[in-house]
Structure formats: C-alpha cells, structure tokens
Amino acid sequence: MTQQIRRTAAASAALVLGVTACGGGSENAEATAWVLNGGVWPVVEEDIQGWSEENPDHAIQSESFANDVYKERIRLAVGSGEAPTLIVGWTGGTLLEYVEGDYVLDITEETAELNERLIDSVAENGIVDGATYAVPMNNVQPVVLYYNQDVFDEVGAEVPTDWDEMLTVIAEFNEAGVYPFALAGSSLWPMLMWSAYLTDRIGGPEAFEAVVAGEADAWSHPAIIEAIERIQELEQRGAFDPNYTGLSADQNEDAHLMADGHAAMLLQGSWVYSRLLDEQPDFVASGALGVTGFPSIPGGEGHPDSVVGNPANFWSVSTDASEEEQEAALSYLSEHLFNDEYVDQMLATGNIPPLEGLEDQIAEAENSEFLSFVYESVQEAPSFQLSWDQAVDPSQEQALLENLDLAFQGQITPEEFAENMNATQPGAE
C-alpha cells in the first residue's frame, strides 16, 4: 500500500532536535554514503567503490556503522543539515518525516526505469503521495523462523507450525536443557518481531495499521493486547534464554547461540543468513540450518502466509547535498543500482534483491533452498508489514522499545503497555 499519511510540522520539527540546518554539502565536495556493516553491506560498499572507480567525476565515499550506532547518528545528521548525500533508511514513519521536513529529494523521474524492475510491494514503500522519495537498495528482509535441525533431532522434537505445537516443543527443549529460542534482548528491536507477528496472526494487518494511521487508542486493539499476553506466557514458560537481556543483535549473538546448539530456534530477519554464511560457515554447510514461517494462531484472523520485517533498506538523496553531490548520487541510482554483478554478489551471499524475474538465477545459486524460500515468501505474502519501530511515528520509537522490554519482563501488564503507547500517539493529550 502506498504510504499516504503525512505528519504534522510539529512532528517533523522533532527531527531537527533543536539544531538549525546548515547544509550538508559543499561545492565540489565528494558525494557520501553511510552504510551498515555485516551481512550484505560489504557487497553494497564494493558496488559503491566500483562505481566510483569507473566514474571518478561522480565518485561516492562510503563509511560503515553498526546498526544501532547508525540509527543514532543519522537522525541527528539529517536534522542538523549534515546528512550524507545518500541516506539509508527503512521508510515508514521516518521517511514520512523526512518528506514533510523537505530533507530528501523527489527522485521520481530519475528512478522511473529502476522502479519498473522492482517488486511492486517493495518499491511502494518509498512512495509518498504519489512521488518516489526512496528506492530499495539491497535485499528483501522478511523475518523468518530459523532452527537447528540437529538439536531437533537430538531431542526428537518437530518444528512447530502452530501455537499449540510451539508450546509443546518449548516444554520438550526445556526438559532437555536446551533454550527453545535465542533472543537478542539488549538490542530491544528483536522483541518487535514477536509482537508484530503475533498481532498480525491474531488480528490481521488491520490491527497495526490503525496504529500507523494515528487512531486514538489504537494500541488497545484486542489483537495487540492478546499478543502481549502470549509473549508473557512464552516468557513464563521459559521460551527464551534466561540471559537474553544481555545478548546483542549487532554482534549476532542470538544467531550464534542457535548455531552452537545452545538454542533450538531464532526469530530473526533474513539478513542473519548471510552473516551465518560468513561467521558460521561449517554450521550452514552441514545442512543443520532450517528455516520456516512463523507459526499460525488457531482461530486468528491473520493469514498464515503474511510476513513482517523490512521490504528492504532504501536510498534517499539529501536535499542538503550540493548539486554536484546530488548529481553523483542520482547517476548512481539511475545507471548502476542493481547491475548484474551486484545482483550476482547479493545472491552469492544469501540475499534476495527486490527484483522481478529472478527465479532462474535463484535456482542456479549455491544457496538456492534458502533464497527460494525467502523469494516465494515475499511474492506470495498477502501482506508484508513493515517493522513496528520503522512504521510508527519516529517520536514513538523509543517509548515502544522501552515499553515492550518492560512487557517482555513482566514488569507491566498488556493493558499498561497499551495505555502507555496510546499516550504517545500523535495528537494524544
């Protein structure tokens, strides 16, 4: 669905953090791009470097950051007029705020040919009020359920397909002394994957769409309340590593816990696969790594094939960059992004570009089983819900993470979670 919601000027002003924009570009300066590290990101940096070597007049200098560090730095940089020329984003509420504040360019004309190659459901996330302000620049990123087949075989358990089966295997793994699920709790955002999937399975995509639309008391939707209740039930049943609050997703500690056999399952983004290829190649090569969809909820209104996660990361172009810097960025997007070599490298590292017609290339890829699962999941999903922290108004993000953390640990009730979040809705008094 094309994003049509526009934030108020007051919400947009929050991005500035009290700093007056002073311009991020200077005449004759080199265009810049900040990227993340790990997973597919080295491929992105290599592509930018290759472009720069072939086009020295339109060169782009890249710099990489850990995920959480990047998120902290980019908001201040954009608001202060010191953003890189190419801005990595997740769309959702932040992109809407960027557009409202005139921080990013309308790139509809320059990316028209590129958009014709993209999967529509992914590309639409970069469109606001009919104009393109961001284009996908790496892999589709649904959240999937990873599991260690060797651990399942040792315990004699079956991979769960619904809620009741999941409760059964949690008990079986606890009895065997294996953590049922790894969870990187210190990073907080992995907890959102649980609340998002459970809400979607219980109430369908409409439950959270009301939150995104800014409706009053939307967080009190019965599906959200029940999702938090089920999360607390999981915690009480010992579903998660008891030390989960100390695990970091930036360090891939949750995935290592599963790969090393200490945990049986992991709910995480598809980007984890490429990191495991790099950091745990023997585990992946052994065939023990399995992947499936999130279990269904009997009686739930949501479709069992719907997915949540990030359609991709997206490039936007800063309005504070100089004309020369903007020209370099736009040339890169229109002439080079998703070139054949880039696509081949992404597939080789276990990542799916958001392009139509990749079936034959995926079938020939070394990681075809995983790639096919992800590609088909995205294409067949009735809905693809954007990660909650990216979908909500940016002013709500920190409160969401903090309150969900409290809910996971049983320090607030589901009703208190909803009450606290309702108070953060734009316009709430």
UniProtKB/TrEMBL annotation:
PROSITE patterns hit by this protein: PROKAR_LIPOPROTEIN (PS51257)
SUPFAM superfamilies: Periplasmic binding protein-like II
Source species, domain of life: Bacteria
Pfam families: SBP_bac_1
InterPro entries the UniProt entry points to: Bact_solute-bd_prot1 (IPR050490), SBP (IPR006059)
The name this protein goes by in its record: Extracellular solute-binding protein
The species this protein was found in: Nesterenkonia alkaliphila
